[in-house]
Design a protein that fits this description.
The complex is a heterodimer of chains A (363) and B (317). Chain A has 363 residues and is an alpha/beta fold. Chain A has helices spanning 47-54, 82-88, 110-121, 126-139, 145-148, 158-170, 188-205, 216-222, 240-245, 250-257, 298-302, 335-339, 343-358, and strands at residues 3-16, 19-32, 36-40, 63-72, 75-76, 93-96, 176-180, 208-213, 225-230, 233-239, 308-309, 318-319. Helices cover 34% and strands 21% of the residues of chain A. Chain A has an 8-stranded mixed β-sheet with strand order 6-7-8-3-9-10-12-11, with helices on both faces. A 4-stranded antiparallel β-sheet of chain A has the order 2-1-4-5, covered by helices on one side. The longest helix of chain A is centred in the middle third of the chain and has 18 residues, at 188-205. Chain A is globular and about 65 Å long. The two termini of chain A are 14 Å apart. Chain B has helices at 2-17, 24-34, 36-53, 55-58, 99-135, 137-152, 155-166, 178-204, 208-215, 220-256, 268-275, 284-311. In chain B, helix 3 (36-53) crosses helix 12, helix 5 packs antiparallel against helix 6 (137-152) and helix 6 (137-152) crosses helix 8. The radius of gyration of chain B is 25 Å and the shape is globular. Classes of the chains: A alpha/beta (363), B mainly alpha (317). The interface between A and B is medium-sized, with 34 and 27 residues.
Amino acid sequence: MADLLEVSDLHTQFFTRDGVVRAVDGVTFQVAAGETLGIVGESGCGKSVTALSLMRLIPQPPGKIVKGSIMFDGQDILKMDDDDVRGIRGNNIAMIFQDPMTSLNPVLTISRQISEALELHLKMDKSESRKRTIELLELVNIPSAKKRVDDYPHQFSGGMRQRVMIAMALSCNPKLILADEPTTALDVTIQAQILDLLKNLAREFRTAFILITHDLGVVAGMTQRINVMYAGRIVEKADTGELFANPKHPYTWGLLRSIPRLDESRKAKLVPIEGLPPDLIAPPPGCKFEPRCQYRRDVCREKEPELVHIPNAKSDHESRCWGTQAGGWLVDTDWRREIGDTRLIEAIKQETASVTATETPGE
Amino acid sequence: MATASTTQDRAAELNVLARKQRSLWQDAAYRLFRNKAAVAGLIVIFSAFLIAILSGFIAPYSPTLIPTSPASQMEPLWTGSKYTDPRYLLGTDFLGRDILSRLIYASRVSMVVGFIPTSIVFALGVSVGLTAGYFGGWLDQLLMRFTDIVYAFPDFLFLLIIVASFRNSPFGKIMDGLLLIFVAIAIVGWVGVARLTRGQVLSLKEREFVEAARSVGATPRRLMTKHLLPNALAPLIVTAAFSVPGAILGEATLSFLGVGIIPPTPSWGGMINEGFPLFAANPWAVLLPAMCISVVMLAFTFVGDGLRDALDPRMKT
């Protein structure tokens, strides 16, 4: 299948008084039509900037996409003029933002906000767009949609607002939806509902999703492939099943280790990754994760590893680590023992297996 | 699934159908009309408007009619002095013109001068402020430095200079000098609005809903008019409500100084000017127009206060 989106060697930088922040530093990935890709990483790793770059929404100045290409449906978004990009935004690529409490305009009614894209791109008139708006609200399971279209955002709860945001994103039947931490601002029960909704919509409309999150638990149930990002780079990419079965980067191990577990004794402490992501103005010269990596060796400090295929793994599994490359000192390390208990990982794996079995595009 | 949908319907019945729809503006109007001072102000303004529009029917005489029989300097009837005339309820001025009729006709000038320059001020100030705030960069620098220059002039002195220097030009004579006053007040007034709008836009454009609107493909113009402006409107409306009495006072002051409305067209400020030399003989010729100015200005101030409280309920004084 031809790729819907092909990002290659994307560099997005912010030119600040203190220096150049390399927020996205040479990111390459593809998304096929109807596929769901997860982008995972801590705060400040360039996930959101990647998403904003895809729609050319980086505030400029100080931000700038300095290098790379974003091929969407055969066209390079970075070479388009502003009008063409606006024609794509909301129409072919839509975005769901993190905080539904602030992403809706407080002085416009729900119907006005959802019909914005319909009127802009599909040139619908008022009554058509209103009809469609009600359909969309019903689609995202907002009860008595007909009565609620004329409500203002403050009359909706957080979960409902996120549903409205999803309805907005779906309004023009986009080919790709970028969901930037769509459930982070919601409580856990609502999170589950929203994820469920996204999953069903992705299946129903064959829309490709890019799901950005810091929560490996979220991507496990949702995605077919995962990119793990760190300090503006992709450090590991693999099929979701493969990533959870056979993670090959110490950073991924760290993320897995820091997932809270319900099945462990109360006394067991959560193990965080020590330290913070590096300053992206002056990142470490070698491997970006080296200062925080408990497996580091001298080579890690001197030279940055490339993103390469992993021995004894599926063909499309790549990782950026000297230790797990062919001949590395971590090749035979049992990651399960490294991160402790394995029961949760098994549970995630099972869920993933069921997802990938039912959600393969083409049905 | 059947039960699920019925529960949903039931919940909808309970929660949604019973509740009345109220927009932000309806809420604000509700709060405004609960404020007694503001309602009183609105009534005064509304009456002043009616009087201005209907002055031709209400006024007993023409405001410029100079009677042939010498009847100058009549005092109002209630003073009971021998210088009264039952035909002139509020007396006459130094040329014998009926003060009541002149007061009524003068309300036209004040109402027009209150609203038209304010509209110009807002059209100008909001567009400059929106453009500067939204686009930023060199355009912002250019527009705001120009605004700063205008802002640096003392308001009233600037107004006086403009009016005094163009008063005798053909332009200054259009509509008895009203047009010149409009333009002068607008030139002086728009800078404050431009600064306020820009400040609002600068903080609003960083909000997420603007980014969300941009991600839907909204054009800059749409973003400015549909997303930024409506959110910045509340403080702007309050400023407008306060700038109307400012304009009325500006015109009155100019006319009092003799550089405003060209006589014989009546204006309250001009009437004070005309009555002033004979203040000792007939103080009412000065006091009555002064009271008209005060009442109208007070009414606008009450409404402005009411609007401020209604539009921003969090900001309690």
